[in-house]
Every structure is written in C-alpha cells, then in structure tokens.
Write a structure and sequence with these properties.
Helix content is 53%, strand content 0%. It folds into two domains: 46 residues; 32 residues. The protein is mostly helical.
C-alpha cells in the first residue's frame, strides 16, 4: 500500500507502459493531477449533454447577461477570424 494526499492508505496496482504510452499519458496529465486521476479522467465515457441540465438554474440574471455578452463577443471574434482566413485563401 502507498500513502496518498487524500486518504491514509490506498491500495495500488502496478501497470507497465511502453515509453510511447507513458509520454502520451504524461502529455495529457494536467498540472497537479496524479497519473491515476489522469487515467480515470481520460478513460471515463463522455457525459451526455442531458447530465448538465439545470446546472446554471441558480445563476443570477446579471451573470447570465454577462455570459451572453461574452459568448456574443467570442462569436463575433470567431467570425472576424474566419473572414480573415477566407480572404487569405482567395
């Protein structure tokens, strides 16, 4: 058994990875994330969009409008960027 920061003792298993697999996992591991946490995050099936329903139901009207403006600004920036790319190809 090995100690971890979240629990007193935690059972562990040893898994052998070839160098390429190790480097791939290392690149996908986030800062502060353990290799175990990275494997669990990457191996979990994707969540359905329905699982997010009601997530922002308690958001204030002010915050919702702020998000709407932010998304609108991002969409406008995307359209400008796409236009520049399109023009550069012409």
């Amino acid at each position: 058994m090995s100690a971890c920061s979240r629990c007193r003792f935690m059972a562990s298993k040893t898994v052998a990875l070839d160098p390429e697999a190790y480097e791939l996992l290392k690149r996908h591991k986030r800062a502060g994330e353990s290799f175990s946490d990275a494997v669990k995050r990457l191996a979990r099936p994707p969540r359905s969009i329905a699982s997010f329903g009601g997530m922002w139901s308690d958001m204030s009207e002010k915050k919702r409008k702020e998000l709407d403006r932010t998304y609108s600004d991002l969409r406008k920036a995307d359209h400008r960027r796409a236009g520049k790319i399109h023009r550069s190809w012409s």
